Amino acid sequence: MTVYPNIKLNLGLTVLGKRPDGYHELRTAFVPCYTFSDCLEIVPSASFEVDVYGEQYTGWDPNEDLTARAWRLLRADFGIPPVKISLEKRSPVGAGLGGGSADGAFALVALSDMFSLGLSLRQLSSYAAQLGSDCPFFVYNFPMFASGRGEILEPLQLPLDGWRFEVSVPSGVHISTKEAYAGLGAKEAVVPDNPDALRETLLNTPVEKWKGLVVNDFEASVFPSHPEVAALKEDFYRRGAVYASMSGSGSAVFGIFKKD
User: Fold this and answer.
1) Residue ranges of the chain that CATH labels 3.30.230.10
2) E strand intervals along the chain
3) Residues catalogued as catalytic
């Protein structure tokens, strides 16, 4: 079975503060994007094997890849047989696009289908949450509003008809999530006057008026130390984007343009 895990973009990202469990409370909207996709092939095998390669592969241990962890989760609960996983990494790594999370989630869905496990989307999402905060989104792979640490999802009907996305990733710039959070300072958990303000803005404000209203909090910590990322955002506006933003904790930046 061959599938093509796509990336995601964040429309706004509000960091409300650190929770007692050590995670940060977030509000964001995830939307699927197909500018980049990996290629994931899973086939039956006499022994378990993982091969990761491609222009975006930077040498991590294949057996620790989220696709391998996905197989181990289902192996533990359902005794699924060994497989060979071949993953061609095409989507940028460490750019806030969720490519690795997509690989893990797509592997769960593919394995469930291959071995007729009959898992519902809700059950698959629960397994995906064990792999990472962004992973459950990719089980559904349509616009979702996320809260909690990003794993609590609600379908979101966004006014995106007639708009297209462009994505740019600055060469050689990799921003770790740890670095992005560190730049926010010791922000403790708070309950704002309206914790759902971002969702209301996205639903009730025309896309062409999102600029200045739909904000990614990480830009304030990332842009001063990585001005090339800020420059990408400004370039999108110079080229006619009605809205531009960094995705996730960076370094990827996207712009929204009116379709021709």
Assistant:
1) 2-153
2) 2-3, 6-18, 24-37, 39-44, 49-53, 83-88, 144-147, 152-155, 163-168, 243-246, 253-258
3) 8, 134
pLDDT of residue 24: 77
Write out pLDDT tens, residues 33-73.
999 999 999 999 999 999 999 999 999 999 999 999 999 99
Tokens at residue 7, please? 């990336």
pLDDT in tens, 169-213: 998 887 777 777 777 764 444 455 576 789 999 999 999 999 999
Q: pTM of the prediction?
A: 0.93
Asked if the 162-258 domain carries CATH number 3.90.226.10, the reply is no
CATH 3.30.70.890 segments of the chain: 162-258
Q: Provide CATH code, domain 2-153.
A: 3.30.230.10
